[in-house]
Amino acid sequence: MSNYTPDQVLGHSDEADGIEEYDNRLPRWWVGLFVFSVAWSPAYAVHYHFVAERSQAGEWQAEMDAAAERWPQPTAEAVASMTVTPEVVAEGEAIYKTNCIACHGPELKGGIGPDLTDATWIHGGSRDQIVATVTNGVTEKGMPPWGPVLGAEKVFKVAAYVHQKGGGQY
Ligand code: HEC
Known about the structure:
mainly alpha; Cytochrome Bc1 Complex, Chain D, domain 2; 2 domains; 7 helices; 54% helix; elongated; binds heme C
């Protein structure tokens, strides 16, 4: 570096669309910042993960816990003991209109998804079977799993509506 002279062009503008560059030394403040951040990162990583025990998974869990407290979901037992009433079916219809119409049609006669009013069932037409299909979906055939989206109570309601519109006799 003894023959270092600042502000000399490197002379490869012909390869770089006419753009020239210098090979000047980096400013001291920049190198200082670089060295500082390299030295600081292990300390920060150790503190973050092991001392403060922060993690994305932990923050996500905390948000989920807060949401569960704010919008309590009924327990599995509470859903299991629900009964089908006209109110439940009406709420199920509203859930259907929001989430299912796009594929199963406004009259449940099908479209992208199959007709839900006829006597032909791929996955079974009992209310429990409909609950299972809607909860778990048939991902490989294009039916999304609704359990994680709607929760057990809304799945119960929309299944009650579908069952009443179509598979009630099975
Ligand atoms: C993105 C399109 C799509 C949406 C949205 C959708 N489905 Fe489906 N659904 C399908 C497809 C495709 C199938 C056929 C799956 C198969 O062939 O196994 C299906 C199958 C079903 C079945 C089983 C039918 C049978 O014959 O066994 C039920 C019940 C059902 N859907 C209910 C619903 C409900 C209730 C909703 C709304 C919460 C909904 N679906 C939303 C695409 C969709």
